[in-house]
Design a protein that fits this description.
Structural class: alpha+beta
Strand order of the largest sheet: 1-3-2
Number of domains: 1
CATH topology: Arc Repressor Mutant, subunit A
Order of helices and strands: HHEHHEEH
CATH superfamily: Winged helix-like DNA-binding domain superfamily/Winged helix DNA-binding domain
Distance between the termini: 51 Å
CATH architecture: Orthogonal Bundle
Shape: elongated
Largest sheet: 3 strands, antiparallel
Number of helices: 5
Number of strands: 3
Length: 112
């Protein structure tokens, strides 16, 4: 499988907006370990089934989870490809930051 690394600004916004909520981060963590039903997820939180469904919908809209219908169940599975793409973006920012620090270190070393 080929993973497209570049993310559009809209995709980045959706991913990080989805990850800004602790409940959604927990749902993502749980569904990366193994798939879960929406009702199984809902049983883990002190909120309504509908509220958990909304959290799952936000994660799904960001591409962080995939939802499949099997019979009467809605199975949710974390999408590691989207996580890899977000990680690649963060890695690129880290490289920019490390480059700036290295240039600053070099500049300061010249003054010695």
């Amino acid at each position: 499988m080929v993973v497209r690394l570049e993310l559009s600004d809209a995709e980045v916004d959706r991913i990080f907006r989805a990850l800004a909520d602790a409940t959604r981060r927990d749902i993502l963590r749980r569904t990366l370990v193994g798939e879960a039903t929406v009702s199984g997820l809902a049983a883990s939180y002190d909120m309504s089934f509908a509220a958990v469904q909304k959290h799952v919908a936000v994660l799904e809209g960001a591409g962080l989870v995939d939802k499949q219908i099997r019979g009467r169940e809605r199975l949710v599975r974390g999408n590691p490809d989207t996580i890899r793409r977000a990680q690649a973006l963060l890695d690129a920012y880290e490289q920019i930051w490390r480059g700036r620090i290295a240039r600053l270190d070099a500049l300061l070393a010249e003054d010695d």
